[in-house]
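Final report, closing paragraph on structural work. Over the funding period we assembled a curated collection of sequence-structure pairs, and we close with a single example.
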Amino acid sequence: MMNLIAQDDPKSPVSEAFRTIRTNIQFAGAGTSIKKIVFTSTTPDEGKSTVVANLGIVMAQAGNKVIILDCDFRNPTQHRIFELENKGLSNCIATGKNVRDILQKSGTEGLDILTSGPVAPSPSEILASERMKEVLAELAEHYDYILIDCPPILPVTDAAIMGAVADGVILLTAWNQTAPQMAKEAKTRLEQAGNKIIGVVLNKVEVATSGYGYGYGYYYNYGHE
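Its predicted structure, as stored:
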């Protein structure tokens, strides 16, 4: 399985960074439940899907029941990260099949995966459908956290659509890659859609420690801005 450092090297500084993100999410609700969380980025290749996968692992390692929902129909990744068959959400929406019948195990106890399924012709329509809302409601009855992997917010509106039915949105940016103006524009678009931004992850930070470099995510709240 690729890029699953939280599983392969749980004592690494990178894995500890994911646990820090986990802790901050737990306290982000300020007394309200944060269960359905959308993850988006400004543009592709900022490491969004890898962050979602590793965060799902550390959340499950803490005893939570977690599901990763791959809603990036335009560039699905979770089935490749976890080496799973890509039969999933689009099949469920199109056929009305019970969502519980197409869940797959991740290899980490407590973490399930609902892959995107075959590429859908109209992703935005699927995400805005009543059936999608029903799927989320059903999953919310069985899981402590639903981590929703969505496309980048600047090219398409999919993340904003899902953010409207989620409890919060986390925006991914990349060190020395994401232009500040693009991050501001992403934040503006999410807020204009009525999405609740609960934080940002700065990914791909290089820190020299003991003669080697590593990348990690840094999380903070928007709560006091």
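The two ends are 38 Å apart (CA to CA). The chain has a mean pLDDT of 88. We thank the funder for supporting this effort.
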